[in-house]
Amino acid sequence: MASPPSSFPHLALIGAGITSLTLSIRLSALQIPHTIYEQSSSLTELGAGLSFGPNAVRALQHIDSRFVDVFNKTATFVGTPSSQGKRILEDEEEWREGDQVWIEFLDGTKQGGDVTPEFVIKAGNGKGHAAVHRGKWLDVLGGLVTAEIQFGKRLVDVVRPDGVKRWVKMVFGDGTEVEADAVVGCDGVKSRVREVLVEALHGEGEGRTNGKCGYSGKYAYRCLVPWDKAVEAVGEDRVGVSSLWMGPNRHLLTFPVNRQEERFLNLVAFVTDQSQTWPSQGPASLTMPATKMDALKDFERAGFSDTWGLHDVADRPLSSFFSDRIIVIGDAAHASTPHHGSGAGFCMEDVAILGALFEEAIAHKALTVNTLQEIFTVFDAHRRERDQWLVNSSRRAADLYQWRIPEFSGQERFEKMKADIEQRQKVCWDFDMESAIERAERDLKELLDTATR
């Protein structure tokens, strides 16, 4: 492979999570030089199951053609409805073989083991609910990354370029300093790059407050239940589908996921408690220890070890995803609660758009340090509104699941809820990736043409 042009900027990717590694694979295909800096000692990913909607799969197709085959081999597809769910669908409309289900919604307050869904939301991908184990997917991505990853690099500060300094300088916790042409913050919910960006946009001292995510007033317990235990508890018909049990101020989500050769039931129990604050609102930590008694207070049966505080940027949205040559993407830009199952998908959309913009600049022989401003400007214009919509809509979705919307009550409650949830999921799933890329490329071309006149 020929060497990239010397005019290509060198990028520093902060964080080695799913967004960063996916972007790295795209940049390497374009021969854009970059280095990944990760504070951990190895590739690690918190959490268990990761949902991928049809929009996520379309984005992956645009990022790298290898992803489609790898994803199909790695993901757990759960689309066949339960026997009770199929009856619900037959009541609503003519049942078609091949119809696939996203989630069956159940009333969690019913007594006597009733597992009949109140309503069923169909998937928009023909395959049903798609989930991968986070660690397994990270391993897949790690095997495709060819760029250098430097571990043990906790970002402390970023010194922005000025009229004298051409480079962006990063200062790390181990005392080292590194220079690059631009910094791409892919460092997730607890993003240090976001804090630096907020200070660049709004002034010194703003980053340590308004650059941090805020506690959403909801927390969760998570665990992987061995398959045989899950089947013993509620039966194979129920554990074999994605299910969401609704209730006042609480809801429970379950779906199957494969890890290596083993199968588990991924279980996440969500609780609303806006009377409390999360320790270190920063958050310095997203989890705190949980005892069985803690879980039992919220749910009668559980086997959880940690409580996860759900943080997002709903109350502190960014006014821009970039400043000069510092940019944030993925969760670093739009950390969201997980109630649409679309956080990873929107991160993949970010990568697809940014990668397409870099490719467009290369096609016009215009990828230099000086044109990064135009690339980042177009990315911000095409991603920020949609990304922030997810943050706000995810909060609304959780309130629907937990019966916190006053107008959604009475006999028609579930009918109204289904219509609202379906509309929101369509916004997530029906995103036209190809058209979005075309529009972004067109806008970048216009900016580049203007800049060279």
Automatic annotation (TrEMBL):
Give UniProt keywords alphabetically.
FAD, Flavoprotein, Oxidoreductase
Pfam families in alphabetical order: FAD_binding_3
Q: What is this protein called?
A: Salicylate hydroxylase
Instruction: Return the similarity comment.
Output: Belongs to the paxM FAD-dependent monooxygenase family.
Q: Does the keyword Flavoprotein apply?
A: yes
What is a biological process (GO) this protein takes part in?
secondary metabolite biosynthetic process
- What InterPro entries does the record point to? FAD-bd, FAD/NAD-bd_sf, FAD_monoxygenase
* Domain of life where this protein originates: Eukaryota
What are the GO MF terms of this UniProt record? FAD binding; oxidoreductase activity
What range(s) does the FAD-binding domain occupy?
Answer: 148-362
